[in-house]
Amino acid sequence: MSPDLILPHAGVLPVFASRPVWCGRGSTVIGAARIGAQAWIGDDGVIRADGQTVTLGERFWLGHRSTVHIATFTHGTTCGDRVTVGRNSVVHACSVGSDVVIEDDVVILDGAVIGDGCVIEAGATVFPRANLPGGFVYGGSPAKPRAPIDPAGVAERAERLREGMGEGAAAVPVPPEVDESVFVARTARLQGRVSLGAGASVLFSCDLQAEVGPIVVGADTNIQDNSVIRTRGEGVVIGRDTTIGHNVWIGDSRIGARCLIGIGARVAPGTVIADEVMLAAGATTDPGQLLEGGHLWGGRPARILGPLDAEKRAMMARIVEGYCEHGREYRLAQRQAE
């Protein structure tokens, strides 16, 4: 069984060592990815090698709604053999050894190195460039060693995680795009009153459910793989030129223009985020919290970590520009694949 969607990037298609054991509904593999034998890719799993390479060893297991990605100009992603990734986790531009267990809701960030025989506990965040020696259980944000673990313990955690995988969500048809410049991935799910501004993009396996209030997305804003937006009240409004990172969860809220919501962040209902805010990866907001503009916010709950300096603002603008280009490329590639 092949992924639901396989796309080239820069003319390069993914390479599978053998036919995967299982590829779930809405699964996507893109670009210069090499995937070892006996891979298992869960529902809405995304492997995206669009700028650097992704190399995954034998018996790689990717849980439902989890994402493997790269840093376009700096880091690829490599995983050794027998790596198990749980649900709603992000393995981003890093190096992971063999016999590693990455549990549910984990974020591993750019340049991190995970040694052989590690377990990363559910909900942990591995900070950029962290080096986690093998043979330990790590947890928290930032991830720190909790206890040593032997190979038998790692294997038991991997087996338990795999056995616990449930069924994913059923697919929902995607509505027609409202503007020729908008990109909506074929594996994304949009339901209800969803409005997408010109140049906006909704990436692979995203789930936007306007169950009560509307979801309004500004021009040139990108919503990255496996992010979930749900409305239960007044709705969600996101300003223009904003980036919503991989595997972000957003409830009824307001997010301003020129913001960046980091990988794996959770925006609680009632949150108001002003223009020009960076919310760090893995951060959370409290219901009704106000995030003032011009700052980097992080932590659980989010607090001001520092000013949003010129370097961070430039980086945020580059991401928006890059995802506008991705949107154009993927819209063309998706049409050619139909």
What is this structure, in a nutshell?
It contains two helices and 37 strands. The chain has 338 residues and is mostly beta strands.
Count of strand segments: 37
* Superfamily (CATH H level) name of the largest domain: Hexapeptide repeat proteins
Strand percentage, roughly? Answer: 35-45%
Instruction: Report how far the terminal alpha carbons are from each other.
Output: 18 Å
CATH topology of the largest domain: UDP N-Acetylglucosamine Acyltransferase, domain 1
- Nearest-integer average pLDDT: 93
* Helix and strand composition category: mainly beta
**Major beta-sheet overview:** 12 strands, parallel
Gyration radius over CA: 19 Å
* CATH level 1 class label of the largest domain: Mainly Beta
Instruction: Outline the low-pLDDT stretches.
Output: 166-174
How would the global form be characterised? globular
The number of helical runs is: 2
Q: What fraction, in percent, of the residue positions are helical? A: 10-25%
What does this structure look like?
It contains two helices and 37 strands. The chain has two domains: 5-163, 3 Solenoid (UDP N-Acetylglucosamine Acyltransferase, domain 1); 183-337, Hexapeptide repeat proteins (UDP N-Acetylglucosamine Acyltransferase, domain 1, 3 Solenoid). It has helices at 151-163, 310-337, and strands spanning 5-7, 15-16, 22-23, 28-35, 40-41, 46-56, 61-62, 67-69, 77-79, 84-85, 90-92, 95-96, 101-102, 107-108, 113-114, 119-120, 125-126, 131-132, 136-139, 144-148, 183-184, 189-196, 201-202, 207-217, 222-223, 228-230, 236-238, 243-244, 249-250, 253-255, 260-261, 266-267, 272-273, 277-279, 290-291, 295-298, 303-307. Helices cover 12% and strands 36% of the residues. The radius of gyration is 19 Å and the shape is globular. The two termini are 18 Å apart. Strand 19 (136-139) and strand 20 form a beta hairpin. It is mostly beta strands and 338 residues long. The strands form four sheets. Strands 1, 2, 4, 6, 8, 9, 11, 12, 14, 15, 17 and 18 form a twelve-stranded parallel sheet that branches. Strands 22, 24, 26, 27, 29, 30, 32, 33 and 35 form a nine-stranded parallel sheet that branches.
